[in-house]
Amino acid sequence: MQGSANLNLMIKTARKAGRSLVKDFREVENLQVSSKGPGDFVSRADREAERLIKTDLMEARPTYGWLGEETGADEGSDPTRRWIVDPLDGTTNFLHGLPHWAVSIALEHKGEITAAVVFDAAKDEMFFAEKGAGAWLNESRLRVSGRNKMIEGIFATGVPFGGTGPLPATLQDLARLMPVCAGVRRWGAAALDLAYVAAGRYDGYWERHIKPWDIAAGILIVREAGGMVGAIDPAQDPVADGSIICANDALFAALAKTIRNS
Ligand code: LIP
Fold it and tell me: Which ligand 1 atom is at minimum distance from the Cα of 92?
């Protein structure tokens, strides 16, 4: 797929950050057994990845705004455009040497995500999309799954870290959903959960408390693959609400009804 100059910049930058993180990931695997543990090292890797990404994107597009997990928000001179970046989504997986994490870069224009990249460097899987131009995994076009029965569906979610946040509500979600589906997965990286819905690997995903940088890119990839996306509050936008429900077009209503308990 021949993308726009912005998409090509995003892909190039995600690959550069991914190369840096793969090198650090090999070191993290060695640090698992150290008494100090890899915590500080991973924090440095996370911050270095965001520095790499911010430097390249802001040098190329100096007027755009910025929202990054590690460095926060910067207003740009162009109020209509901003980058939304999670340099290392799946931080806890990375910390534990689990090869399931991603670089997530989204471009927002007038409040709408128009280009998206989610790069799984450990597995060399580049998920990307542009508004109106479809969703892709490396050279292959993506389409959400064709399953239309909940009992055949596999759904992903995120559970609050250390039992904080909406744990009671999430446990109630599981109590309602698990008896009526084929299974639930909690793999710890929202950006990849969304990318896997777009690829038809999962039939849907939801999470009650999630940050804009975790989901901004994945939302466009799911939509461009034919999936549906909403917030747990149907009147809200997922990025603004900090919650998300998404699924293939056949199962979205049933999953949303189950999670919203409506
Ligand atoms: C993670 C999300 C995941 C969520 C975790 C965490 P991070 O993002 O991708 O879905 O359940 O609590 O927020 O912190 O690894 O960038």
Answer: 15
- Whole-prediction pTM value? 0.96
Q: Is the CB of 86 under 6 A from ligand 1?
A: yes
User: pLDDT tens for residues 7-47?
Assistant: 999 999 999 999 999 999 998 878 777 777 777 778 889 99
Q: How far is the CA of 210 from the centre of ligand 1 (A)?
A: 7
Query: Three-state secondary structure along the chain?
Result: CCCCHHHHHHHHHHHHHHHHHHHHHHHHHHHCCCCCCCHHHHHHHHHHHHHHHHHHHHHHCCCCEEEECCCEEECCCCCCEEEEEEEEECHHHHHCCCCCCEEEEEEEECCEEEEEEEEECCCCEEEEEECCCCEEECCEECCCCCCCCHHHCEEEECCCHHHCCCHHHHHHHHHHHHHHCCEEECCCCHHHHHHHHHCCCCCEEEECCCCHHHHHHHHHHHHHCCCEEECCCCCCCHHHHCCEEEECCCCHHHHHHHHHCC
- Structural domains for the chain: 5-141 (3.30.540.10), 150-260 (3.40.190.80)
Task: Give the pLDDT confidence of 188-207 residue by residue, as tens digits.
Answer: 999 999 999 999 999 999 99
